[in-house]
Design brief:
Elements lengths: L7 E7 L2 E8 L2 H17 L8 E9 L2 H19 L2 E10 L5 E10 L11 E2 L5 E5 L2 E9 L1
Antiparallel strand pairs: 1-2, 2-8, 3-5, 4-5, 6-8, 7-8
Helix pairs in contact: 1-2
Length: 143
């Protein structure tokens, strides 16, 4: 995703939870940055790079649900297999509604326990919307 360098992330304070707000030029860049921000929340800046890879498809009726479903899958991979995201390649298909993302996640196994344990990706305040100049998304994680 060549547009990643134009994306930005802002961490949000929330009672008993933690959130992020992501902006970027495309929905793909926003989902990719949100995924990497989730990894940084869990592991800090020491994101493990490795040659381990996971490929999966995710669907969502609208952009916000697609974003949530991608993040939930990545959180599951971390919780169940210890797979920590080092990068994400996305390919979107379809239109609203009925988006599908083909994801190729690459990364490795973290050496240390998580800094922040994320329990889930909530629906509270969830959004992913097109705005002038690109996309904006907001995600709250249950900690």
């Amino acid at each position: 995703m060549s547009e990643e360098s134009q994306a930005s992330v802002r961490f949000l304070e929330h009672t008993a939870d933690i959130g992020i707000e992501v902006t970027g030029p495309s929905l793909e860049s926003v989902i990719g940055e949100a995924a990497m921000a989730m990894t940084r929340l869990m592991l800090g800046d020491a994101v493990p790079l490795g040659e381990d890879e996971r490929t999966f498809e995710i669907v969502g009726d609208e952009p916000a649900l697609l974003l949530r479903n991608v993040l939930r899958e990545l959180l599951f991979l971390y919780s169940a297999e210890g797979f920590a995201l080092g990068g994400l390649d996305l390919e979107l298909e379809g239109g609203e509604p009925g988006l599908k993302a083909r994801c190729r996640a690459h990364g490795g196994t973290p050496g240390d326990p998580p800094k922040t344990e994320l329990k889930g990706v909530t629906l509270h305040g969830l959004r992913a919307e097109r705005e002038e100049g690109g996309w904006r998304a907001r995600v709250i994680f249950d900690v």
